[in-house]
Specification:
Elements lengths: L14 E17 L2 E10 L2 E8 L4 H10 L5 E11 L2 E6 L6 E4 L18 H13 L4 H11 L2 H9 L13 H19 L5 H10 L4 H4 E3 L3 E3 L1 H5 L2 H14 L6 H12 L16 H25 L6 E4 L3 E4 L2
Parallel strand pairs: 3-5
Antiparallel strand pairs: 1-2, 1-4, 2-3, 4-5, 4-6, 7-8, 9-10
Length: 322
């Protein structure tokens, strides 16, 4: 069975008969007519709550709940309702609705995790061109230690850049990294005092830790290492390990590249253990923020399900849609 409609195309009052991936579950609870549970489902068009209103047979409801795992793909028959300004799928088995877990092989992963709309080979070529322009031999060898590894490049080109925010798609990490690198190249043209080679190296490596942070099945998820350590710390460690294997790599330069990775989110509020402490680190943090913020607000505008001129986003606040 293949999907026929994406979540961002659903409308209140509509009927659903389609496949969705399960992002997380909430426990079974009793309500006045029986037992219910809630799961959060997703596909390439977004995320949505699904509420299952079961009957009084607690064992039956719990058996269904236990058969659904995070990352499961489920066949859902139900109705789209609006609750507190958000759309939800309501499943009522007494009305013939259902939630049915599928087995691997009964669905296509590409229906649930979006892929970048950009051409991956073109982006890869552009990133490699930026690497070739690096003149500092130590930094060039550092970059080549990563991107001379064909398996790492394959993973890098397929990795998402986030779970639910910017570039949360197959190829998203390459897409985001290239945009940040281009912004940093522009900054280096405008500010002669910036060390272009250091800045570009930091841009290309700033999210390298995401290779160990994210995993892709029917959903984009986080590994235990990603949740417990985070991609900035993972990435700084990867950089340090690579620098130690390069004969004669200057310790001070090693520290600078590590710092650029660790400070690339700008502030502790956004997850950086350290704030930027030298110009290239500041430029990288601003480039990273620029790309994520612009993409986030474009996404809100393009996916807004309203006829109003404005939409309220939890993180961005009021967004004008005209």
């Amino acid at each position: 069975m293949r999907k026929t409609i994406k979540i961002n195309e659903l409308k209140a009052g509509g009927v659903v008969d389609d496949l969705f991936a399960v992002r997380f579950k909430k426990p079974v609870q009793q309500y006045k007519n029986g037992y219910s549970f809630q799961i959060w489902v997703s596909d390439a068009g977004g995320d949505m709550a699904l509420k299952y209103w079961g009957e009084k047979d607690e064992r039956k409801v719990r058996a269904l709940f236990d058969a659904i795992d995070k990352g499961s793909v489920v066949h859902v028959v139900g109705k789209v309702n609006e609750y507190n300004g958000a759309l939800e799928i309501h499943v009522n088995p007494t009305s013939g609705d259902k939630v049915e877990p599928l087995r691997e092989g009964e669905y296509e992963v590409s229906d649930f995790v979006a892929s970048t709309t950009e051409d991956v080979e073109t982006m890869r070529t552009q990133l490699f061109a930026a690497i070739r322009k690096v003149k500092n031999e130590h930094l060039k060898r550092l970059l080549e230690s990563f991107f001379g590894d064909e398996e790492l490049v394959r993973r890098f080109c397929a990795c998402p850049a986030s779970i639910t925010h910017h570039s949360n798609c197959i190829g998203g990490l390459l897409e985001h990294t290239l945009r940040v690198t281009k912004l940093c190249e522009f900054y280096a043209q405008q500010y002669a005092a910036l060390d272009r080679d250091l800045l570009v190296t930091g841009a290309i490596l700033h999210d390298i830790g995401k290779l160990s942070e994210y995993t892709v099945t029917s959903i984009i998820g986080a590994t235990n290492e990603g949740r417990l350590v985070g991609h900035l710390v993972i990435g700084a460690g990867m950089v340090h390990d690579a620098c130690r294997l390069i004969e004669g790599f200057p310790p001070e330069l090693d520290l600078k590249v590590q710092h650029m990775v660790l400070s690339s989110h700008g502030t502790p509020e956004y997850g950086s253990p350290k704030g930027p402490m030298f110009p290239e680190a500041q430029a990288l943090a601003l480039a990273d923020l620029t790309d994520t913020r612009i993409e986030d607000i474009i996404t809100v505008k393009e996916t807004a399900s309203t006829e109003d001129d404005w939409v309220q986003d939890r993180e961005l606040g009021s967004v004008y849609l005209k």
